[in-house]
Amino acid sequence: KILPLSSVVKPLFNHVWDVLSNVPSFQSEYGIILRHLLAVRDYSFQMRKRVYCSLVMLYIEKVEASLNGKNISHFTSKEEVFRNILTLHSLLDYPPGDYPVNLREDIVKGFVKICSFIREEGKISRKLVECINTYLLNDGPNLGFQLLEIHNAMQEFLFQCWLTTHDRVLKDSLMVYARTQLNLIRGADDRQLLVEHLLDVIYKDLDQGSMSSTTMPRVDGNMDDKLGTLSSSQCGLVELAAVLFYRVVTRNSATDSWT
C-alpha cells in the first residue's frame, strides 16, 4: 500500500526544517506536523540524515534554553517547553534508521546539560525522563563511558524524587531508567559505582513499603491474602531490587574466590 505522502515526504521534511529553524511564528503548528510525520515509519525512514541531525539539535537547544531560562513559570511557556520535549521524544523514538554516529556525542552533551536544569516534578520532568529512556534503549549499547556521564547528570534528580514522589508514572520511568543503565553499563568499576548509588535508595524504598505494610490490619486467611496483590510499580521495584542484590552477591562471590 502506497501512503499518500510517500512521493513528497522527503522535500516535506526539508520544508518543515526550514520553517522550524527560520520562522518563529509557526513553531507550534509545524512541531505538530513533524510529530505526525515521524509517527509513520515509512515517512521517517525517508528523512535525510542531515535534516534529522539538524532537527534533533534544534530541539535539544530549545529544551535546554527553555529550562535554563526564567520564563517557564508562566503556564503558556510551560506548555511550549512540554511541546518541544514531546517533539524531541518523537525524533529520538523514530530516527531514519540508526542514529548518525556524528550525532551521538552532541545528544549526550545535550542530555547532560538538560539534566542539570531539572528541578521539580511534573509533566516536563516526566517527559524528559521518557526521552532519556528512549535514547538509552535505542542507542545505549553504543554509548560506552558516556552512559556514566548521563547517570552522573541524572542522579541528583533521580535520588531527590525516588522516595518522595507521588507521581507513579515518573517513579515507573525512573525504575526503567535504573534497570536500563544496569543492563547497559559494562565496565566493572562503573557498574559497581551505579549499583552502590542505587542500593541505598532501594533499601530505603523497601523499608518504606515494609513500614506501611505493618500498619495494615491483621486478617484471617493465608499469607497471599494478607499481602494482597502487588501493583505494577511494586513489581518493578521488587524486580529492580532482585537485580541489584544479584549483582552484589555475584561480585562478592567473585571477590571471595580470588582471596
UniProtKB/TrEMBL annotation:
Key words, A-Z: Kinase, Transferase
GO terms classed as biological process: DNA damage response
Gene Ontology MF terms: protein serine/threonine kinase activity
Protein name, per record: Serine/threonine-protein kinase ATM-like
Organism the protein comes from: Trifolium medium
